[in-house]
Amino acid sequence: MESTTKLKDITVGQQNCKVFARVIRLWDAINTNPRYGNALISIDGILLDEDGCMAQISVPKKFEKQFCGLLSQGSAYIISNVAAIDIRSKSYVYRHQNYMLQFKQDTKVDLLHSRGADIPTLSLDFCPFYQLPQKAIDSKPLLDVIGVICDVGPYDYASQTSQHKFRKTKIRNLEEQTQELVLWGQHGESFDEETVLKKSQEGIVIAIFAGVTATLQRFTGMIQGSSSSATQIYLDLDIPKVQKYRTRFSLSHSCAYRIYV
């Protein structure tokens, strides 16, 4: 049986890669331009292998029906005959590698029921706040950020003339720096402010915003985080990084918190 290739050993241009990994993230990459009516571009996701390496996968729209029922977030697979394509010209992708694995018509997906149990179901690569200005570029690389929630605004229209709705939030890092994030559409609407408010009455709430982008505000010069179709939000995950935040803030003081309900 042909062996699999580790994600770190794949190079751009390989056409028939065979990998063993867990799908830890999965989302529909959507074109949010109103003229296209939120059209699907591809089904994208993140693979995590036994070495802890990550790589993005992409199922082009034309193969959506062929593969959408074969992939499930959290499951481990052997995926054969995928192409490692260059991501330098790609927008809204993670930069874990210099390639992404693109599905083809002859790609094969084999679900594993026992093998891969040791591969975690989640892995995150946090971007420090001070690096966000470097990420505010046209290609909009996807980023993961973490912080203590210190402000949650209302879900409302972006302006009096806009048809788009959003919710602004702010998080604070270990250095007491504050970062604003804008949660557009469903991410702003589904953000559970009641749960956050309840948790905040008992202590701090640590949020992870995975799959956001950084944007330079033209008039203010401030860096703003923004949700994307890849965004997933986690509250108070049981991981070492969250515990580090909890310990740090419990030793100093609770984070000032404001919420609109």
The SSE string, one letter per element, is EEEHEEEHEEEEHHEEHE
Q: Order of strands across the widest beta sheet?
A: 1-2-3-5-4
Radius of gyration: 19 Å
Alpha-carbon distance between the termini?
58 Å
> Helical proportion?
10-25%
CATH topology of the largest domain: OB fold (Dihydrolipoamide Acetyltransferase, E2P)
- How large is the share of residues in beta strands? 35-45%
Q: How many helix segments?
A: 5
InterPro entries: NA-bd_OB-fold (IPR012340), RFA1B/D_OB_1st (IPR003871)
Organism: Aegilops tauschii subsp. strangulata (Goatgrass)
Pfam families: DUF223
Domain Replication protein A 70 kDa DNA-binding subunit B/D first OB fold: 5-110
Descriptive notes:
Pfam families: DUF223 (PF02721). This is Replication protein A 70 kDa DNA-binding subunit B/D first OB fold domain-containing protein. It comes from Aegilops tauschii subsp. strangulata (Goatgrass). This protein is mainly beta and 261 residues long. The termini are far apart. The chain is 13% helix and 40% strand. A 5-stranded mixed beta barrel has the order 1-2-3-5-4. A 5-stranded mixed β-barrel has the order 7-9-10-12-11. The protein has 2 domains: 7-112, Beta Barrel (OB fold (Dihydrolipoamide Acetyltransferase, E2P)); 129-259, OB fold (Dihydrolipoamide Acetyltransferase, E2P) (Beta Barrel). The longest helix is centred in the last third of the chain and has 12 residues, at 240-251. The relative contact order is 0.14. The protein is built from 5 helices and 13 strands.
